[in-house]
Amino acid sequence: MLSQEVAIQTPNGFKVRPVTKFIKAARSLKSDITLSCNGKTADSKSPSNLMALSLSNGDVVTISVSGAEEEKNLQIMVELMKKLGGQ
């Protein structure tokens, strides 16, 4: 398992639009991907789990990837999280 921390940089937090894009990307990968923050962990392929994290702008999350192509998929998800902040 590989992990990396990244800050939420979306002005309105990690809400419906960024969550939807994140889930779409996670579901396209064969790895198991989780997000963790403030003692809670969520499956990145589950909308309700991600929304339950209630992530706000500035929160630091840990993206963890296990399974096929961990390194590549971790980088994809970290870059996506950073890109979502620019929208």
Automatic annotation (TrEMBL):
PROSITE patterns: PTS_HPR_DOM (PS51350). It comes from the Eukaryota. Signal peptide: none annotated. The keyword Transferase does not apply. Residues 1-87 form the HPr domain. It holds the Pfam family PTS-HPr. Keywords: Sugar transport, Transport. PANTHER family: PHOSPHOCARRIER PROTEIN HPR. NCBIfam families: PTS_HPr_family (TIGR01003). General (non sugar-specific) component of the phosphoenolpyruvate-dependent sugar phosphotransferase system (sugar PTS). This major carbohydrate active-transport system catalyzes the phosphorylation of incoming sugar substrates concomitantly with their translocation across the cell membrane. The phosphoryl group from phosphoenolpyruvate (PEP) is transferred to the phosphoryl carrier protein HPr by enzyme I. Phospho-HPr then transfers it to the PTS EIIA domain. This is Phosphocarrier protein HPr.
